[in-house]
Write a structure and sequence with these properties.
Elements: E1 2-7, E2 14-19, E3 22-28, H1 30-33, H2 51-61, E4 70-73, H3 93-101, H4 103-110, E5 119-121, H5 124-133, E6 140-146, E7 153-161, E8 164-172, H6 177-187, H7 196-203, H8 211-215, E9 219-220, E10 226-227, H9 248-251, H10 254-281, E11 285-289, H11 296-305, E12 310-313, H12 321-333, H13 352-361, H14 372-381, E13 386-389, E14 403-407, H15 414-422, E15 431-435, H16 439-442, E16 443-444, E17 456-459, H17 461-464, E18 476-478, E19 480-482, H18 488-501, E20 505-510, H19 522-531, E21 536-539, E22 542-545, H20 546-559
Parallel strand pairs: 1-4, 4-5, 6-11, 11-12, 13-21, 15-19
Antiparallel strand pairs: 1-2, 2-3, 6-7, 7-8, 9-10, 13-14, 14-20, 15-20, 16-17, 17-18, 21-22
Length: 564
């Protein structure tokens, strides 16, 4: 069967295509539209569909809308209840529900030839759960979902056997750990439903001064749910103006302490929920999804402190992943055996010749060296910054070696340097890519391998001075392990860097600048390279040096008779 999954209602609109149980393509709308998160999660935007990513998924498989057997929409309006009945202040939510009910007609208009009768609604948290369990490499697992909200709940605990989900617990709104964290994000002066990862980073600079008070009201319950009333944050720290400069005093003051306290309590409650689930299932494996599953610090505590032997988190754990989950669940419901994700590299790609054509069309001088790995490693060893564009783009918010910005981890100043390049706050960490067979000697306290950068690990004290750029203020790092067998070009380059420096690690951060989506197509890569102080651009097998670029520009102007 040919099944298109669609996420559209709240934020991070996306599309995914599953054919005969195999994941063929998945992409977020922001990578096409260049609008961060695709849209804001307000009712007035609920009608907007991921038209560009839907069309690309179909094009990638050579399909027309009429060829689809099912379109799986990751929200079921029949399960929704009025916002005021749920204890939510959302006076226009009825508009959102109207748009959801009419999704089949909207989809048919966006994809001419699609029969609206082929659209099926998949409950939001079921779509999240499927994106975890059915996309994982495990046939059987417990599954834990936590996010801001779905139709009427914010949480699902259950168990998957094959393609069948047994729901063991849910938590009705208004209690929501996701909405709690979003509210804190807004209070601290960041953009809610967008910047929660900044709060996680800021928490490392604080002390959990308010943890005991938070424990009095935010807690897990005996039925597998939780209580999470949103407190008056101003009792502990004044609201911060989003336009105000966040200086180092704020990092280490009451705002950081509040972030630290809430982060710590979130971790404790998630561990309690996971333990409750294990008591009911006894499973060896836990799979996780929902926006809260992007909290890497909490994920590592679950891995360390619960009886589950393995924890697998969906790389696109936020709402974008529900497009994939909805498609997989629709396939499973129709008796198909679904295959796990081959990797997170499920987006667009270009052939070597196509990339060369882009470079020639932009009049950018480049080489295609046989020893690309050695040349790039040499640049990094001499403290250059490299924009790395290779293969299919990542599905999800993490740069995993397809669209990455790389640097030397042995130079402490590279943390501040990269944050300046990207135009973002200086308390934000950058991450290490490490060769998989060296990870265990440097990092502990989290699972290894860790290919999707979804867990935080402790950095061995003997290595902290050797790779200071990737060590967070609390002595941890959010690692990505790289296996040269599955990422040959990237793996060969890191091996070459290791031979030069003795460091089997490079700095990795996403290939973008602040407020913009991750680079996706060659034009995006060229625009970033032209506007940011990056020394080298790698596009597949091709290499562009900044020195070559400007020398080439001089020759073009000279040939045109332009005085420089």
């Amino acid at each position: 069967m040919r099944i298109l999954g669609v996420n559209a209602l709240f934020h991070d609109p996306s599309a995914a295509l599953v054919i005969d149980g195999q994941i063929v393509a998945a992409a977020e709308e922001e990578r096409f539209s260049r609008r961060k998160h695709g849209k804001r999660p307000v009712p007035f935007a609920a009608w907007e569909l991921p038209e560009l990513s839907m069309r690309w998924c179909l094009k990638a498989a050579g399909l027309a809308p009429r060829d689809l057997d099912v379109v799986a929409y990751s929200y079921d309006p029949a399960l929704a209840r009025p916002a005021d009945e749920l204890g939510l202040v959302d006076p226009w939510d009825d508009l959102r529900q109207t748009y959801a009910r009419r999704a089949p007609q909207f989809l048919a208009a966006a994809l001419p030839g699609l029969d609206p009768e082929k659209v099926r609604f998949v409950p939001h948290h079921v779509a999240h759960a499927a994106s975890g369990a059915l996309a994982s490499p495990f046939e059987r697992s417990s599954v834990l979902v936590l996010d801001g909200r779905g139709e009427h709940a914010s949480h699902l605990s259950g168990r998957y056997t094959g393609g069948s989900l047994e729901v063991l617990a849910t938590q009705d709104l208004p209690h929501s750990l996701g909405l709690l964290y979003e509210s804190l994000t807004e209070h601290l002066g960041f953009l809610r439903s967008s910047d929660e990862y900044k709060v996680m980073a800021l928490a490392s600079y604080g002390e959990p001064r308010y943890l005991e008070e938070l424990r009095e009201t935010i807690r897990a319950t005996d039925d597998g749910g939780f209580q999470a009333p949103i407190p008056d944050w101003s009792r502990w720290a004044p609201a911060r103006d989003r336009d105000a400069h966040l200086d180092e005093q704020a990092w280490r003051g009451v705002h950081a302490d509040l972030a630290c306290s809430v982060q710590a309590r979130l971790e404790e409650v998630l561990v309690d929920l996971a333990r409750w689930l294990h008591e009911r299932t006894g499973d060896r494996v836990l799979t996780m999804a929902g926006g809260t599953a992007l909290n890497c610090v909490a994920n590592s505590r679950i891995w360390r402190e619960t009886p589950f032997e393995e924890v697998w988190v969906q790389p696109a754990a936020g709402d974008a992943g529900t497009a994939l989950g909805a498609a997989l669940q629709a396939a499973a419901d129709r008796g198909e055996t679904t295959a796990p994700m081959p990797s997170a590299a499920l987006g667009r790609q270009w052939s070597d010749d196509e990339l060369a054509s882009w470079l020639r069309g932009a009049a950018v001088p480049f080489t295609t060296p046989d020893d690309l790995d050695e040349q790039v490693a040499e640049v990094l060893a001499h403290n250059g910054v490299v924009a790395w564009f290779d293969g299919r783009s990542e599905f999800g918010p993490r740069a995993l070696g397809q669209r990455s910005l790389l640097a030397n981890p042995g130079v402490a100043a590279n943390l501040e340097r990269l944050n300046d390049v990207k135009g973002r706050e200086q308390f934000r960490p950058v991450a290490p890519m490490v060769l998989a067979d060296h990870a265990a000697e440097i990092f502990s306290g989290g699972p290894v391998p860790s290919p999707y950068m979804l867990f935080v690990h402790d950095v061995d004290p003997l290595w902290r001075d050797r790779i200071p750029a990737v060590v967070h203020v609390d002595g941890t790092a959010r690692i990505q392990t790289v296996d040269p067998a599955t990422q040959p070009r990237l793996g060969a380059m890191i091996q070459a860097f290791y031979r030069r420096t003795g460091l089997p690690v490079v700095v990795n951060t996403s290939l973008n600048t602040a407020g913009r989506p991750m680079v996706d197509d060659p034009r995006d890569a060229l625009e970033l390279f032209g506007s940011a102080p990056v020394d080298v651009l790698v596009m597949g097998p091709h290499l562009v040096r900044r020195s070559m670029l400007f020398a080439g520009a001089d020759r073009v102007h000279e040939a045109a008779g332009v005085a420089l």
